[in-house]
Design brief:
Elements (H helix, E strand, L loop, with lengths): L9 H6 L1 E6 L20 E2 L3 E2 L1 H10 L4 E6 L4 H10 L10 E6 L13 H6 L2 H8 L3 E6 L2 E3 L3 H11 L3 E9 H4 L3 E5 L5 E6 L13 E12 H12 L8 H11 L3 E5 L15 E3 L3 H9 L28 E3 L12 E2 L4 E3 L2 E3 L2 E2 L4 E2 L4 E3 L2 E2 L4 E2 L4 E3 L1 E3 L4 E2 L4 E2 L3 H7 L1 E2 L6 E3 L1 H8 L11
Parallel strand pairs: 1-4, 1-6, 4-5, 8-12, 14-16, 15-18, 16-19, 17-20, 18-21, 19-22, 20-23, 21-24, 22-25, 23-26, 24-28
Antiparallel strand pairs: 2-3, 6-11, 7-13, 8-11, 9-10, 9-11, 27-28
Catalytic activity: alpha-D-glucose 1-phosphate + ATP + H(+) = ADP-alpha-D-glucose + diphosphate
Protein name: Glucose-1-phosphate adenylyltransferase
Subunit structure: Homotetramer.
Length: 435
């Protein structure tokens, strides 16, 4: 890399950095699972939410000046941030601030894209936070990363904009921004979601993809956003509009995720997941119950914090000796399991499973009640659902499609409280439960 002769001081760099987590997206490919909550607020891993990964990465990286930009269905996300992430000492200039869409340009303009979400908060960023560097993150991915390493690389390279990148298969790459870099990691080309993704040199089946993580020199960010807002036919998007400008101006560099990844699997491979579909959300949760999981949620060296619910211990009561008990599963606090078989599943807090039921390869969100003699296979059961006695889900595909949401692959069945109420002929009140 070209650039500075003197190595940047990590302490000074993180102190001069503001983090903006973009957490306003719905996650439409998750269908009814995000009807009441933004995707970053979705539950994950037994007692966390997806946004806890980005927030924990910040804290573990020493980055304690954080703004969370929200928009869609933000109530549960805001409550989670208030209850679980308000511990940073404001008197030391550390904070997790919430930046909801406030229609700051005029009375009809919400955030029109990722770049616009930052632009509409630019006066606050510039005049109140006064950072030297701005780190922009997506709030809806599962991974562990030391952002301070990315910041140090950004400064050492002489870049004004650095994009985090990851190697993906060419089949997957059409869902990402894809780039090519030189030997100094300077970006030479960038294409947003190409139909025919270009391959990496020497790796014909692999493309270099943007992770949606960006570091900007603050002054450059202000300038490029000011210019962008007056550009006709813009999408107000970092990938579609801002990165191509930085590329054209010769100030765009790449940061390989492998340099700062803090969560590798047992084979030493980097771990990063976009849990943006029912199948990927289900699979990423189910992966956690394996003997050697892809993601180590017990790693004390890089802990993933959250807002764990205060519960009584879980209770397992077996009077029928012929029932196969809990096997290879994650069970959170406050659950009551009575003569029921649980295998290869993730149960969040306050789940009740009654006599004679079996739960296999399923993700059960908080405060679900599963009645007697039920069979659940390959399910995602949304919060507050009550499964009637004798219900079979994941057994008859045709019947599942009539009653519930089946994933695009046909493998996973989503069940929500509203779906169950519709089957029983009653309506569910949107005000009855807080997510």
């Amino acid at each position: 890399m070209n650039g500075m002769t003197k190595s940047p001081n990590k302490y000074e760099v993180v102190k001069d950095t503001l983090v903006l987590i973009l957490a306003g997206g719905r996650g439409s490919r998750l269908h009814e699972l995000t009807d009441k909550r933004a995707k970053p607020a979705l539950y994950f891993g037994g007692n966390r939410r997806i946004i806890d990964f980005a927030l924990s990465n910040c804290i573990n990286s020493g980055l304690n000046r954080i703004g969370v930009v929200t928009q869609y269905a933000a109530h549960s996300l805001l409550r989670h941030l208030q209850k679980g992430w308000s511990f940073l000492p404001q008197e030391r200039g550390e904070f997790v601030d919430m930046l909801p869409a406030r229609q700051q340009i005029d009375n009809s303009t919400w955030y029109r894209g990722t770049a616009d979400a930052v632009y509409q908060n630019m006066a606050i960023i510039r005049n109140h936070y006064c950072p030297k560097y701005v780190l922009i993150l997506a709030g809806d991915h599962i991974y562990k990363q030391d952002y301070s390493q990315m910041l140090l690389d950004h400064i050492s390279s002489g870049a004004k904009c650095t994009v985090g990148c990851i190697e993906v298969s060419r089949k997957e790459a059409s869902e990402f921004g894809v780039m090519a870099v030189d030997e100094n990691l300077k970006v030479k080309s960038f294409i947003e979601k190409p139909k025919d993704p270009p391959a990496m040199i020497g790796k014909p089946d692999t493309s270099l993809a943007s992770m949606g993580i960006y570091v900007f020199d603050a002054d450059y960010l202000y300038d490029v956003l000011d210019r962008e807002v007056n550009t006709p036919y813009t999408s107000h998007d970092f990938g579609k509009d801002i990165l191509p400008k930085s590329l054209e101006e010769g100030v765009l560099y790449a940061h390989p995720f492998s340099r700062s990844c803090m969560g590798r699997n047992t084979e030493g491979e980097i771990y990063w997941r976009d849990v943006g579909t029912l199948d990927s959300f289900w699979q990423s949760n189910i992966d956690l119950v394996s003997e050697n999981p892809q993601l180590d949620i017990y790693d004390k060296r890089w802990p993933i914090r959250g807002n764990p619910v205060q519960t009584y211990p879980s209770k397992f009561f077996y009077k029928n000796t012929n029932v196969k008990p809990v096997d290879n599963s994650l069970i959170s606090g406050g659950c009551v399991i009575t003569d029921a078989s649980i295998s290869n599943s993730v149960l969040f807090d306050h789940v009740k499973v009654k006599e004679g039921s079996s739960v296999d390869y399923s993700v059960i969100l908080p405060e679900v009640t599963i009645g007697k003699n039920c069979v659940l296979k390959n399910c995602i059961i949304d919060r507050h659902s009550v499964i009637p006695d004798g219900t079979h889900i994941g057994v008859d595909p045709e019947e599942d499609r009539k009653r519930f949401r089946v994933s695009s692959t046909g493998k996973v069945i989503l069940v929500t409280e509203a779906m169950l109420k519709k089957l029983s002929g009653t309506e569910v009140s949107s005000e009855k439960h807080l997510d």
